[in-house]
Amino acid sequence: QVQLIESGGGLVQAGGSLRLSCAASGRIFSYYAMGWFRQAPGKEREFVAAISRNAANTDYADSVKGRFTITRDNAKSTVYLQMNSLKPEDTAEYYCATPSTPYYNTYRTGTRYDYWGQGTQVTVSS
C-alpha cells in the first residue's frame, strides 16, 4: 500500500518561504517520479512541479518557475518543495503525487499520477 504524507504547510506573509515535505512508503521510492499539485478554493487542481525518479529532470509551472524548487532524497523516501517569494495567489491545498508506473520522464497531467497524499494547506497573507 503506497502512502504519501505531506507536511510543512502553514500561514506565511507574502515574500516569505515554506518548505513542504512528502514522505512516501509502501514501495521502492527511487523507482518513481514525484509531483506536486495544488488546488485553491473554487479552482481546478493545477500542476506545480515534478521530478524524475533519479532527479535528473525537473519541471515547473510557469507561475512558480524561479521561486519554487523540487528536490528528492531517495535515501529518506521524501520529496520536497521549497517555496520562496510566496505570493497570495500561491494560497492553496498542496498535494504530492506519484504514478504507479516507473516512468523515466516527468508529467504535468494529473491523470498520470495514481497515488495522492492528503494535502497540506499553504496560506499566504498580503
Describe the secondary structure blueprint for this structure.
Blueprint (H helix, E strand, L loop, with lengths): L2 E5 L2 E4 L4 E8 L8 E6 L6 E6 L6 E3 L7 E6 L4 E6 L8 E7 L16 E2 L3 E6 L1
Parallel strand pairs: 2-11
Antiparallel strand pairs: 1-3, 3-8, 4-5, 4-9, 5-6, 7-8, 9-10, 9-11
Task: Tell me the helix content.
Answer: under 10%
As residue ranges, the low-confidence spans are none
C-alpha geometry? globular
* Span of the ends, CA to CA: 40 Å
Number of helices: 0
Structural class, by secondary structure, is: mainly beta
Query: Sheet bearing the most strands, described?
Result: 7 strands, mixed
Secondary structure tally: strands:
11
Cα-atom radius of gyration = 13 Å
Query: Which strand-content bin applies to the residues?
Result: over 45%
Average per-residue pLDDT, rounded, comes to 96
Summarize the structure.
0% of the residues lie in helices and 47% in strands.
Overall description:
The strands form 2 sheets. Strands 2, 4, 5, 6, 9, 10 and 11 form a 7-stranded mixed sheet that branches. A 4-stranded antiparallel sheet has the order 1-3-8-7, with no helix packed on it. The model has no long low-confidence stretch (mean pLDDT about 95). The chain has strands at about 5, 10-15, 20-25, 35-40, 45-50, 60, 70-75, 80-85, 90-100, 115, 120-125. The chain contains no helices and 11 strands. The N and C termini lie far apart (about 40 Å). The protein has about 130 residues and is mainly beta.
